[in-house]
Design a protein that fits this description.
Largest sheet: 6 strands, mixed
Oligomer: single chain
CATH class: Alpha Beta
Order of helices and strands: EEHEEHEHEH
Helix content: 40-55%
Mean pLDDT: 85
Number of domains: 1
Strand content: 25-35%
CATH superfamily: STAS domain
Number of helices: 4
Length: about 120
């Protein structure tokens, strides 16, 4: 798993890219990274899951719980996800709102206000 904080194409948004595995082994790192993000600044988060190789229920549940914890600490923080359909379904089943999950980065950025394709 690789977590990267990259400059987003949107002002006041950070991009978190999780690559590789989202599972029981990577769950603590995901929780720690999102806790860190909650303390960084007032920016919103776009979490890109397009390059996941494997996902298990613990990884999905941890990501959903960590997202809810972040939003409890920072109620004004918006969190959106870019995920392939199978991962998107699992996120929604874990309690992530359907309107916060997008099937590709360009659609996410357009919906979130960038109006142009992401690099």
């Amino acid at each position: 798993m690789i977590l990267q904080t990259l400059p987003a194409a949107l002002a006041h948004w950070h991009l978190f890219k999780i690559q590789g595995q989202l599972d029981v082994a990577s769950a603590p790192a995901v929780r720690t990274a999102l806790a860190h993000a909650a303390r960084m600044d007032d920016a919103h988060l776009l979490i890109d899951l397009e390059d996941l190789v494997s996902v298990d229920d613990i990884g999905i549940r941890t990501l959903a719980e960590a997202t809810k914890e972040l939003q409890a600490r920072r109620p004004a923080c918006r969190v959106a996800f870019v995920a392939p359909p199978d991962v998107a379904e699992r996120l929604v089943a874990a309690g992530i709102p359907n309107d916060a999950v997008y099937d590709n980065g360009q659609r996410a950025l357009q919906a979130l206000g960038a109006g142009q394709a992401a690099a």
